[in-house]
């Protein structure tokens, strides 16, 4: 499997953990004190880091730091939008499309030869 694909797959998995760590507590722990939510989020984030660090190390063998960052941002939006709609029950907005188009521009500029 190509390095960029391994990196993208691992970053996608780590991003799922990250999204739940950052935003999942808003739905599931909103009645708990904030420090309980923080401790649980840190526990979830541990698994995100256990996947993200190897992903970036693998990716850095062929990609620049800038390329890794832009890849991460694209993956973040691709994970966040379904999470927002299906887990948090937020409306799907056209703004997500515009944000995605802006990220495509970033992808073009960071990956062009």
Automatic annotation (TrEMBL):
Keywords: Membrane, Transmembrane, Transmembrane helix. The chain crosses the membrane at residues 7-25, 31-49, 70-88, 94-111. Signal peptide: none annotated. Pfam families: DMT_6. InterPro entries: DUF486. PANTHER family: DMT FAMILY PROTEIN. This is DMT family protein. It comes from Aquipseudomonas alcaligenes (strain ATCC 14909 / DSM 50342 / CCUG 1425 / JCM 20561 / NBRC 14159 / NCIMB 9945 / NCTC 10367 / 1577) (Pseudomonas alcaligenes).
């Amino acid at each position: 499997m190509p390095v960029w694909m391994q990196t993208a797959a691992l970053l996608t998995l780590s991003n799922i953990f990250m999204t739940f760590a950052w935003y999942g507590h808003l739905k599931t722990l909103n009645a708990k004190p904030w420090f309980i939510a923080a401790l649980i989020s840190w526990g979830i984030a541990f698994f995100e880091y256990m996947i993200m660090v190897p992903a970036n190390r693998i990716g850095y063998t062929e990609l620049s730091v800038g390329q890794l960052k832009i890849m991460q941002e694209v993956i973040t939006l691709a994970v966040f939008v379904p999470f927002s709609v299906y887990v948090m029950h937020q409306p799907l907005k056209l703004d997500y499309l515009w944000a995605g188009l802006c990220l495509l521009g970033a992808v073009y500029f960071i990956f062009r030869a």
